[in-house]
Amino acid sequence: MRSKQKYFISIVVVFLIFSIFLLQGCGKKATTLPESSAPLESAPQQSEAFRVLLVIANSDFQDREYDAVRNILSESGCKVMVSNSSGNESVGVNGTRVKPDLVYSEARVSDFECLVLIGGPGAKEYFEEPQLRTLVRNFDYAKRVVGAICIAPVILANAGLLKGKRATVWPDERQKLVDKGAIVEDVPVQVDGNIVTANGPDAAQEFARKLVEVLKSSQTKM
């Protein structure tokens, strides 16, 4: 009888010891695998987007030029802001309505890398506009890219930017550029230094792509 009791006690003791061992093991923190020491590969940083100021007439700007230029510039990563002289909604030849982001007289050259003048019959209101003429000259003086399409190159000529420069323009306005000393060539798009000109709506896409090309080139030279 005593041997059975001793046997039973031995089993209980063994069970208790085993239980204590299990409890101690469960109380330990789980071992975590060390993280890889290799640095995470960061995404390539893109250069800051080019900031472009687009100038349109208050009425009768050329919709096709506006749409093509704005879309291609935006698709290329440019940040485009639209301006006019009034701050009120502009209406295009074909009825496109655009609320400008700012009045161009409030624009600071240091905030943009490029100035683009959209054509259309309404652009004639800017041919002799002194504030836009000053803005155009300031952009050119700061070596920013300056573009004009359709009849808008007349604005550049009147500001004195095209004297001795190769340029193109809507055919009806050719003589105005010649009178201001421009070398007018019968091509859809012309580039001379930091100035890009185009002769009308059919050249709008090529004009926009050339603006992007000149902007990238100017960044490389900086």
Topology of this structure?
Elements: H1 2-26, E1 51-55, E2 59-61, H2 63-75, E3 79-84, E4 90-92, E5 97-98, E6 102-103, E7 114-117, H3 130-141, E8 145-149, H4 153-158, E9 166-167, H5 174-179, E10 183-184, E11 189-192, E12 195-198, H6 204-221
Parallel strand pairs: 1-3, 1-7, 2-4, 3-6, 7-8, 8-12, 9-10
Antiparallel strand pairs: 4-5, 11-12
Describe the overall structure.
- The protein has one domain: Rossmann fold (3-Layer(aba) Sandwich).
- A hairpin with a 2-residue loop joins β11 and β12 (195-198).
- It is globular and about 35 Å long.
- It has helices at residues 2-26, 63-75, 130-141, 153-158, 174-179, 204-221; strands at 51-55, 59-61, 79-84, 90-92, 97-98, 102-103, 114-117, 145-149, 166-167, 183-184, 189-192, 195-198.
- With 222 residues, the chain is an alpha/beta fold.
- The strands form three sheets. It has a seven-stranded mixed sheet, with helices on both faces. A three-stranded mixed sheet has the order 2-4-5.
Helix content: 25-40%
CATH topology, by name, is: Rossmann fold
What structural category arises from helix and sheet content?
alpha/beta
Summarize model confidence as the mean pLDDT: 85
* Count of alpha and pi helical runs: 6
- Reading off the top of the CATH hierarchy, the class is best stated as Alpha Beta
Give the name of the CATH architecture.
Answer: 3-Layer(aba) Sandwich
Q: In percent terms, what proportion of residues is strand?
A: 15-25%
Structural Rg: 35 Å
Terminal Cα separation, in Å? 103 Å
Number of extended strands: 12
Strand order of the largest sheet: 6-3-1-7-8-12-11
Low-pLDDT runs of 5+ residues are: 25-47
Q: Kindly report the oligomeric state of this protein.
A: single chain
